[in-house]
Amino acid sequence: MHKISIAIDGPAGAGKSTLAKKIANLKNLLYIDTGAMYRAVTLKLLRENVPLDNYELVKRVLDNTIIEIINGSIFLDNVNVDKEIRTPKVNENVSKVAALPFVRETLVKLQRKIADKNNVVMDGRDIGTKVLPNAEYKFFITASIEERARRRYEELKKNGYHCSFNDIVKKIAERDKMDSERKLDPLKKADDAVIIDTTNKNIDEVINIILGKIESIK
Ligand code: DC
After folding, report:
1. pLDDT attached to residue 152
2. Between 129 and 13, whose confidence is greater?
3. What residue's CA is closest to ligand 1, atom 20?
4. Mean pLDDT of the chain
5. 123 lines ligand 1 (CB under 6 A)
6. What is the pLDDT of residues 137-190, one digit of tens each?
7. Which residues have a Cβ under 8 Å from the Cβ of 45 and sit 6 or more positions away?
8. Whose CA is nearest to atom 15 of ligand 1?
9. Could you give the 3-state DSSP secondary structure of residue 22?
């Protein structure tokens, strides 16, 4: 049977995952956080001290790694790593890992396989452009860099990490640059995506905009 897919892309901290989770709940779709998959791979490579320029080793480790999303949680080799993938150390390294061609190839394949079998809301950077170019609905979520940094700051604080706000602005700017300037599947709005700036909107306002566009999903 034909599966429905909604692609939600945009830069870090724009609110994609909060929105995607809510939409998935409201419409009974499976929520797939593809950023969590890149983070889980990063965690594994960091744990195993794999030099990122060692293609053979990255490939060998990845070939022996199981990444799964079960009930909205991310599992690395059968262990829940929801918390471990959100540490500053993973934040600092994930863009480099996400730029590795073999990592992208492996995760894109896995993401397509999931979308083949399920009705999904998938959030990431390249969902509308690369992973699911034929998705029924595509959204590109943005917000000003200060607002995105503020949200990331609150998230880190909630999880017990203390960072300077200015540092986060700097790091997000660096991450934006790396994600949008990398050669392979850069962060980019798909031509047919609806763009939503969430800077001065609360979650419910944005949800209502999205619901208005996907009315046909019952
Ligand atoms: O959304 P996030 O901050 O959890 O994403 C973590 C990193 O993974 C970010 O640097 C961009 C990258 N990423 C990607 O390249 N492609 C995706 N589909 C999702 C995330």
Report:
1. 86
2. 129
3. 35
4. 94
5. no
6. 999 999 999 999 998 899 888 888 888 999 999 989 998 998 899 889 899 999
7. 52, 58, 61, 93, 97
8. 98
9. helix
